[in-house]
Design a protein that fits this description.
This protein is an alpha+beta fold. It contains 1 helix and 6 strands; from the N terminus they run αββββββ. The mean pLDDT is 84.
Length: 94
C-alpha cells in the first residue's frame, strides 16, 4: 500500500508539468526484496526512488522528485515511507 502511495507521488510530479518531454536518463532494478529506479526528463522533472523489504511485509522506501512549477519555482520533494507512513519534506526556491 505505501509503495503504491510513493509511486503515485512520483507520478504526480510528472502530471504537474503537463507537457511533453523526452527521457534523458532512466534506470531500474527490481528484485524480490529490493528495488531502485530513476528518471530525468528534458522538462527538468527528475525522480529517484529505492526501497527494500524489512521482514516479510514492511517496505522501507526513500526517494525524491523535483520539477519546475507553473509559476517558475523549483520544487524538490524528499521523502521516506515506512510502516509508520509517508514522510515528505518539500523545498521551494524562486
Amino acid at each position: 500500500m505505501k509503495f503504491t502511495i510513493v509511486v503515485l507521488a512520483c507520478l504526480f510530479a510528472v502530471a504537474i508539468a503537463n507537457e511533453e518531454a523526452d527521457i534523458i536518463k532512466e534506470f531500474s532494478e527490481v528484485n524480490t526484496e529490493d528495488f531502485k529506479y530513476g528518471f530525468e526528463l528534458t522538462n527538468k522533472i527528475r525522480a529517484i526512488q529505492e526501497g527494500h523489504l524489512e521482514g516479510e511485509k514492511v517496505w522501507i522506501v526513500k526517494g525524491e522528485y523535483e520539477y519546475v512549477s507553473k509559476d517558475g519555482k523549483h520544487v524538490k520533494v524528499t521523502y521516506t515511507a515506512d510502516d509508520y507512513g509517508y514522510h515528505p519534506k518539500v523545498e521551494q526556491s524562486q
